[in-house]
Amino acid sequence: MTVELDAGAALGWRAAQHALGGAAATGVVGIAERVVATRAWPPEVAELAFAIRQAEPDRGAVGRALEAGELVQSYAFRGGSYVFTPAVAAVLLAVRTASRVWETRRWQRQIGHEIEDWEPLRSAVRERLADGPATRAEIAAHLSRSASLAHLADTAASGSGSDSLYKPLHWWGDIAFGPPREGVSTFRLLRDDPRWPGSLDVDDAGREAVRLYLRAYGPATAANLQYWLGEGLSAPRRRLTGWLEDLAAEVTEVDVDGVEIFVLSSTLDDIRAAAPTSAISLLPGHDPWVLGPGTADPRIVAPQRRALLSSGRATVLRGGFVVGTWRRAGQLVAVEWFDEAGAVPRAALEDAVRQLGRACGSELSLR
């Protein structure tokens, strides 16, 4: 017999997992574990995504955690850079290698090298970073002194294929982003970091990635999983299907408003006991709450509002559903409340603006 779950209760449980509507008394590492992955750029928006979830926001804590190695910033979803704990990074970056896209002729043409160049390139980059974080230009200068790798120096510095050259080194766990230097990105050595768990088997990582997703973003549809792991990390569909099948003893298929959805069996009782929430939250653009399920998920975003959110607008949530957008102008926060969301709960919205002000370290007022 299929278990039926209340959609409002399911969103209420997920909101609690994300520390929304009742900010958590935990640091940025704890928040990172809750949301799994957070878009890293621009850094002030990433900081806000963490701060809005804290009972006592600690501004600048993400940057300090990255510098200390407590968090890792690497290329991940859709080629963008994301922040996660080292343990989660090892899982997601291993999944990103499943497609082996760096072996394609198209990828090689972007960089201007051959497959056999990868191993000497990896060794040369690790050699340069052994002395500490370095910019693209500094890595390129090191490559230019190698007879066999000098042809990659221009690309490594800032050429159009620069990201294509560095991304696989992130996915393999060789390097990660280091602390920026006067606004310029650096890379640091990751492989020798004592917090780094090392490379994982791709299928082991895939199964763990499904667990992580369902724990943070469940209940989830097959389309949600495909969006996050397939479209986001380029995991082949057949492997994703296999990972889900391998977890049959740990995953339960449930019914939410007539839709077949997956949950971790260990969380099922808590989800069933959860209560719907009407809490208002103001989140920055590209927040994990929206990026996790994706803007195509009608349980989070009304279809007619999808394009607006895909452009990165900061969002207003009520009960976990997007009901508006906001922007800040000085000390004022202007809210666009969607017509279909009904009457504006002004007192609750003002409370949310005050919480945003605490996260920003500034007293803000609702316009």
Task: Give the topology.
Layout: E1 3-5, H1 7-17, H2 28-35, E2 38-39, H3 43-51, H4 61-68, E3 72-75, E4 81-84, H5 86-96, H6 105-111, H7 118-129, E5 134-135, H8 136-144, H9 153-157, H10 162-171, E6 175-181, E7 184-189, H11 202-217, H12 222-231, H13 237-246, E8 251-256, E9 259-264, H14 268-273, E10 280-283, H15 288-291, H16 306-310, E11 314-318, E12 321-329, E13 332-337, H17 346-360, E14 365-366
Parallel strand pairs: 1-8, 13-14
Antiparallel strand pairs: 2-4, 3-4, 5-7, 6-7, 8-9, 10-11, 11-12, 12-13
Helix pairs in contact: 5-11, 7-8, 11-13
Question: How would you describe what is shown here?
Answer:
The protein is of the alpha+beta class and 367 residues long. Among the domains are: 104-189, Arc Repressor Mutant, subunit A (Orthogonal Bundle), CATH 1.10.10; 280-366, no CATH class. Helices cover 43% and strands 18% of the residues. The chain is built from 17 helices and 14 strands. The strands form four sheets. The chain has a five-stranded mixed sheet with strand order 10-11-12-13-14. α11 (202-217) crosses α13. The longest helix is centred in the middle third of the chain and has 16 residues, at 202-217. The protein is globular and about 70 Å long. The chain starts with a strand and ends with a strand. The model has no long low-confidence stretch (mean pLDDT 94).
